[in-house]
């Protein structure tokens, strides 16, 4: 298997949206870097970074935003340097895997996209409301997946506040304390040189918090998105015997049963599932992985 086949398998065939988003971000970062190197070596009169910033980064100046209306979406897949993308992708991997495991891939996708959009909107609003940014808003732009990643981090900590992870040099830490520390640092740094970046983090975090709160109260904001991309079930009659048990082997349920369990998670959380319901989800996931191999 070639390297491109392996990358395709990781991004598209693994079933993980976390790996898909990491792949998209890394590919765009590498492509931008390669094009920049190419123009440098051949002394071409093209500034790739300027083009990317002008047409894909989200601006706060409203007249510019009006004719670059796509930028609140595109900015969340761009990065300004190696360490910028490195830390964003690491946190996306760590937190995204947890959220994807306890909810599902579609909700993870919704939180990433909607959280990034919320971060962009919050950033634009703050720069156009507060006098401190009156001069900076004309030329201010933002790039990065940070708002999307923060939305996922806060959503995960809100859903599983006592979930514990191990940190180097610190030891086991509960998610609620870890994410709270990140949010406090973002608040403090709003007064620093990268105000827009930290403001977008806060916008994404606010969305992640209220999304899970709404989910826990039975209001699933991602439902319209999931319904649009929900595949139709293909039914096949295998027997006319009314007494045949149609449940697949290894207790693997049909899609309707899985949807019912996911709806229960949306209403009351994963921890309120019965052991049998958790086993059903586990077997369904295992069966999906076997089919992908």
UniProtKB/TrEMBL annotation:
<dbReference type="GO" id="GO:0006508">
    <property type="term" value="P:proteolysis"/>
</dbReference>
<dbReference type="GO" id="GO:0004252">
    <property type="term" value="F:serine-type endopeptidase activity"/>
</dbReference>
<dbReference type="Pfam" id="PF20216">
    <property type="entry name" value="DUF6576"/>
</dbReference>
<feature type="domain" description="DUF6576">
    <location>
        <begin position="254"/>
        <end position="286"/>
    </location>
</feature>
<feature type="transmembrane region" description="Helical">
    <location>
        <begin position="142"/>
        <end position="163"/>
    </location>
</feature>
<dbReference type="InterPro" id="IPR050925">
    <property type="entry name" value="Rhomboid_protease_S54"/>
</dbReference>
<dbReference type="InterPro" id="IPR046483">
    <property type="entry name" value="DUF6576"/>
</dbReference>
<dbReference type="InterPro" id="IPR022764">
    <property type="entry name" value="Peptidase_S54_rhomboid_dom"/>
</dbReference>
<dbReference type="GO" id="GO:0016020">
    <property type="term" value="C:membrane"/>
</dbReference>
<keyword id="KW-0378">Hydrolase</keyword>
<feature type="transmembrane region" description="Helical">
    <location>
        <begin position="20"/>
        <end position="41"/>
    </location>
</feature>
<feature type="transmembrane region" description="Helical">
    <location>
        <begin position="175"/>
        <end position="192"/>
    </location>
</feature>
<comment type="similarity">
    <text>Belongs to the peptidase S54 family.</text>
</comment>
<dbReference type="Pfam" id="PF01694">
    <property type="entry name" value="Rhomboid"/>
</dbReference>
<protein>
    <submittedName>
        <fullName>Rhomboid family intramembrane serine protease</fullName>
    </submittedName>
</protein>
<keyword id="KW-0645">Protease</keyword>
<keyword id="KW-0812">Transmembrane</keyword>
<keyword id="KW-1133">Transmembrane helix</keyword>
<keyword id="KW-0472">Membrane</keyword>
<feature type="transmembrane region" description="Helical">
    <location>
        <begin position="76"/>
        <end position="96"/>
    </location>
</feature>
<dbReference type="InterPro" id="IPR035952">
    <property type="entry name" value="Rhomboid-like_sf"/>
</dbReference>
<feature type="domain" description="Peptidase S54 rhomboid">
    <location>
        <begin position="69"/>
        <end position="212"/>
    </location>
</feature>
<feature type="transmembrane region" description="Helical">
    <location>
        <begin position="108"/>
        <end position="130"/>
    </location>
</feature>
